[in-house]
Write a structure and sequence with these properties.
Elements: H1 12-34, H2 37-60, E1 63-66, E2 75-80, E3 87-93, H3 106-118, E4 131-136, E5 141-147, H4 152-161, H5 170-189, H6 194-204, H7 218-223, H8 226-236, E6 242-248, H9 252-262, H10 267-271, E7 289-297, E8 304-312, H11 319-333, H12 342-348, E9 352-363, E10 366-375, H13 381-398, H14 402-418, H15 423-436, H16 443-452, H17 455-467, E11 470-478
Parallel strand pairs: 2-6, 7-11
Antiparallel strand pairs: 1-2, 3-5, 3-6, 4-5, 8-10, 8-11, 9-10
């Protein structure tokens, strides 16, 4: 479940082209007064065509590619965007909470400490650009800075420091646990669905590491030690297990030069551990499960069903096509079209007042599906659970309507074309694909993959979701 807030940005070229069109229309009025209608129309058509070509050109110049460098980094990606107002430099560590064997939440603690270390806190100087932050999603740890072109060397320096041992004062590192504890109180403690979701996923995955809580618990946060921090850093924070991503109005040659300068090859780096193999992805949860949990919360606004399930799905034979098939089904379920959740359960019968869904594959040939649905007035949560199960069974038997698939494809393609020049959207998709261990795609390949999704793959996924190998229903009701 993600909420993305986006601010509309008009690239300089598009602004310039639009201004030119407005000026040209003004000139057209003058020409209309002193010349024939044929000349006026011809001039207007010429200007309109020129404006359209300019807009099309500006939307096609963004390129994403993996580039060669003389470094030990696992990969370097360059997103060239000449219309970007800032440059982004990000370092991605191919490790997260799933790789922790000690205190729950340790990867998040390490993320905090390494950010401050890379920021130059121990030297008394703040080195990162104006807009910098970090996050860990359980699988990846992502550090980034955004700044002006003159900030680029400092941002590369920040990224390179992430691969050096932390030099912060011991007292500061231990006190940072209190910061995380306050973050837990702010973000989690009063979240009425947090316990339901995390505990349901732990049961669903039979306590497999993919269900570990990234932020930890108050008890695990207090128990985290600097020995654990050092062990996790030594194992995962090295060049072979890191990706560099640079986006903005910066040429490939400069990215290569700065990469080679700040991440030079070294015998020490080559002697370190190899890239994280993520062998946990090949594991499976084979035992069937049908479980129910109950929670009460005084913070909840309405009785809510949290359903998580694991389904056996062989997929299409192409892991990337599997991701796009899941994307399609999510989009259909979130629509009001035939085949959606909303039409039968919200609009027709008033079973669900609102809902949110997510779907992805973390383990081999197993799809995790999550539904968070608030019941409509006076509708028992048992009814919500039963009707949703019936919805999946009926839809999988009938198959997804082809007309719905094509209408959703049209919407997705329109959105993708509109966002083809949006660097933030391309970077978001890049991080998603890295998390799911599928190839990173350019905006052009993204469009091609949307075109490839077919009814047969969608129907096979629906059938798998309806069978659901393991399922946990958490019933969250209001209470003191």
């Amino acid at each position: 479940m993600f909420l993305i807030q986006r601010i509309t940005y008009t690239p300089p070229r598009q602004r310039a082209a639009t201004i030119a069109l407005v000026v040209s229309l003004a000139i057209t009025k003058v020409i209309n007064r002193i010349s024939t209608p044929v000349i006026t129309v011809g001039f207007l058509l010429f200007v309109t065509a020129l404006w359209s070509q300019t807009i099309a050109a500006q939307a096609s110049v963004q390129t994403l590619e993996q580039i060669p460098t003389e470094t030990d980094l696992a990969r370097v990606y360059h997103l060239y965007d000449p219309d970007a107002s800032v440059v982004t430099v990000a370092l991605v560590i191919l490790a997260g909470e799933v790789d922790v064997t000690g205190s729950e939440g340790l990867s998040h603690y390490v993320e905090h400490l390494m950010f401050w270390h890379a920021d130059g806190l121990s030297a008394g100087e703040i080195s990162h650009a104006r807009d910098g932050n970090a996050w860990v999603n359980g699988i990846l740890t992502h550090y980034y800075n955004r700044g002006e072109p003159e900030d680029v060397p400092a941002m590369f320096d920040f990224a390179s420091r992430l691969l050096t041992a932390p030099t912060l004062q011991r007292s500061f590192m231990l006190d940072e646990r209190n910061v995380i504890a306050r973050e837990y109180d702010f973000r989690v403690a009063q979240n009425p669905l947090w316990s339901a979701i995390t505990e349901s996923r732990q049961q669903l995955y039979d306590n497999h590491p993919v269900a570990r809580r990234v932020i930890g618990t108050p008890e695990s946060i207090r128990a985290m030690s600097l020995d654990e921090v050092n062990a996790f850093y030594q194992q995962h924070y090295h060049a072979k297990n890191a990706l560099l991503v640079v986006a903005g109005d910066i040429k490939q040659k400069q990215v290569q030069q700065l990469s080679n300068q700040y991440f030079p090859m070294s015998d020490a780096a080559r002697a370190q551990s190899v890239k994280n193999a993520q062998t946990w992805r090949n594991e499976r949860i084979d035992t069937p499960l049908d479980a129910r949990l109950a929670f009460t919360s005084r913070f909840i606004t309405g009785d809510t069903l949290v359903r998580v399930s694991l389904s056996e799905w062989e997929g299409t034979g192409d892991a990337l096509d599997d991701v796009y098939t899941q994307l399609f089904v999510e989009a259909i379920f979130n629509s009001n079209l035939p085949g959606s959740i909303a039409k039968p359960l919200r609009l027709d019968e008033f079973i669900i007042a609102q809902y949110d869904i997510s779907m992805y594959s973390l383990l081999k040939q197993q799809v995790e599906f999550m539904l968070v649905a608030r019941a409509d007035d006076n509708i028992p949560l048992d009814t919500v659970s039963q009707r949703f199960s019936a919805f999946l069974t009926d839809l999988s038997a009938q198959g997804m309507p082809l007309r719905t698939i094509e209408r959703v494809r049209k919407r997705l393609l329109q959105t993708a074309r509109r966002q083809s020049g949006d660097a933030d959207e391309t970077l978001r998709r890049l991080m998603l694909h890295l998390s799911l261990n599928v190839p990173v795609v350019s905006p052009e390949e993204h469009l091609r993959r949307l075109e490839r999704v077919n009814k047969a793959s969608i129907d096979s996924l629906l059938l798998a979701l309806a069978k659901r190998h393991r399922v946990v229903d958490a019933l969250v009701t209001s209470g003191k």
